[in-house]
Prior knowledge:
Keywords: Methyltransferase, Porphyrin biosynthesis, S-adenosyl-L-methionine, Transferase. Its EC number is 2.1.1.107. The protein is of the alpha/beta class. It contains ten helices and 14 strands. It has helices at 18-27, 57-70, 129-137, 149-157, 176-188, 207-216, 229-236, 268-273, 287-296, 326-332; strands at 9-12, 31-34, 46-51, 74-76, 113-118, 140-143, 161-164, 192-197, 221-224, 250-254, 277-281, 304-309, 317-322, 339-343. The strands form three sheets. Strands 7-6-8-5-9 form a five-stranded parallel beta sheet, with helices on both faces. A five-stranded mixed beta sheet has the order 10-11-14-12-13, with helices on both faces. A four-stranded parallel beta sheet has the order 2-1-3-4, with helices on both faces. It starts with 8 loop residues before the first strand and ends in an 11-residue tail after the last strand. S-adenosylmethionine is lined by residues 121-122, 146, 197-200, 203-205, 228-230, 233, 281-282, 308-312, 337-340.
Amino acid sequence: MSLVLAGVTVLLVDGPETALAADLLREQGAVPVNWGGHGTDGPEGIGLVRIPAGAAADRAAEALEWARRHGVPVDDRRGVPDHGAHGAHAVPGKPGAHGEDAGAEEPAGTTGEVILVGGGPGDPGLITVAGARALESADVILADHLGPVSLAEEAARRGAELIDVAKIPYSRQVSQDRINELMVDNARKGRTVVRLKGGDPFIFGRGFEEIEACTAAGIPVRVIPGVTSMTAAPAAAGLSLTHRGLNHDLTLVSGHVPPDSPKSLVNWDACAKMTGTLVLIMAVKNAGAIAATLIDRGRDAATPAVVVENASTPSQRVTTATLGTLGETVRSTGVRSPAVIVIGDAAGRTAHLC
Ligand SMILES: C[S@@+](CC[C@H](N)C(=O)[O-])C[C@H]1O[C@@H](n2cnc3c(N)ncnc32)[C@H](O)[C@@H]1O
């Protein structure tokens, strides 16, 4: 079982671990095809670009650029070796739940538990120690595509069942009801269920709804907080959201609906009047409309803006603009989700990190 969707055609960049990566992809039900460089045709039929561990920097850069141009998501594994890739192993201390016995029914009458784990922004090193331990103890992992996907896949190679419940923007969506059902049904079979989420479960993560579904079904549930992309993305880009003497407020806004939508719950007038830092998530598509609204309602067009894509992963990219140029910059540079946008004077001071 894999996060890579069964039947998806995956463009595989060449490198020392390409053959291993191709085998893994086939095991996961995907169809790997070899990357042919810049001359590769358009994205028809291609669902993912995979950059295996050890891929040469120039090949990876070419592939990233190709993927960006064609709007195809990238699974960049540089720095995440596919060690221990073949074969499922029993997890010490959990007899009967993994390995050869995986899939066997647990004794009736025992109830498992659900653990909501905030996985952080993507770098496997940015999950908490408690979160990593929970993954080690999991019989079943329900995972999103954001967050430390490689850790979930490692747990699957050790024998945990991995279920892909990603909600991909403007693409395939697993309904929240189905996710709730999977958590409850698996816990009722006595399993330890880890619901692995990107960032923190309670920041635009529907974590509370999942807790309610568990408690309504009488399933024990706990939460392990995660490092939210709201703070991790700016930090990874060397950007401090607050500066002494510069700002005393910090606001997080979801930009998944445009400001003029009747569905918007954001007080855009208030946002425009604030002088501190504004952080937008899920705002790539509506960045231009949001910037125009903020300027229209009083925020200075010269206010610095910084966009951080794929924060904490090898494909992280940082793009600078002003509020006035944000929409055009996002468009012309081909910014893609996931991205965090920081607006405010604090965004004008980005440190050069090594
Ligand atoms: C559904 S929200 C989930 C937020 C998550 N619960 C958190 O605390 O980070 C998804 C949005 O988070 C942001 N995001 C998550 N991971 C990111 C990353 N590695 N780099 C940039 N933005 C990220 C993007 O704005 C993305 O559209």
